[in-house]
């Protein structure tokens, strides 16, 4: 029987995640242990920030309602809107009139 197209059992995914965390020596960060939920959340937010359609993300995450996926969209928009544009870091233009030579009559 071909098992490639069947969902993975949740305990198998949890065990694999724990094994990978241990092998990569990833422990608690900021007092919190990395979780599958956090990984899933980061996956969705990164996809949204990279322009993936929310409906596609809904299907990938298995959400029944697009409203659930929209929660990730609000987080992504907040993050994007609070980001500093590289153009904002450029020096402000100098008033060109202050550096013009005096007009001759």
> What's the rounded overall pLDDT mean?
78
Count every beta strand, where a strand is a DSSP E run of 2 or more residues.
0
Main β-sheet, in a few words? none
C-alpha end-to-end distance: 95 Å
Tally of individual helices: 4
% residues in beta strands: under 5%
Structural class: mainly alpha
The unreliable regions are none
Q: Choose one word for the global shape.
A: elongated
The rounded Rg comes to 24 Å
What would your notes on this structure say?
- The chain is mostly helical and 105 residues long.
- The chain has a domain at 35-80.
- 50% of the residues lie in helices and 0% in strands.
- The protein has four helices and no strands.
- The chain has helices at 10-23, 36-49, 54-61, 66-82.
- Helix 2 packs across helix 4 (66-82).
- The longest helix has 17 residues, at 66-82.
- It starts with 9 loop residues before the first helix and ends in a 23-residue tail after the last helix.
Strand-helix topology:
Elements: H1 10-23, H2 36-49, H3 54-61, H4 66-82
Helix pairs in contact: 2-4, 3-4
What key phrases describe this protein's structure?
mainly alpha
Question: Quick gist of this model?
Answer:
The longest helix is centred in the C-terminal third of the chain and has 17 residues. The chain is built from four helices and no strands.
């Amino acid at each position: 029987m071909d098992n490639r197209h069947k969902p993975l059992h949740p305990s198998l995914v949890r065990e694999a995640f724990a094994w990978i965390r241990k092998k990569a020596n990833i422990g608690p960060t900021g007092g919190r242990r990395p979780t599958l939920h956090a990984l899933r959340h980061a996956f969705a937010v990164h996809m949204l920030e990279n322009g993936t359609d929310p409906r596609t993300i809904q299907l990938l995450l298995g959400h029944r309602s697009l409203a659930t996926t929209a929660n990730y969209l609000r987080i992504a928009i907040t993050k994007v809107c609070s980001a500093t544009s590289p153009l904002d870091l450029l020096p402000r233009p100098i008033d060109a009139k202050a550096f013009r030579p005096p007009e001759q009559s």
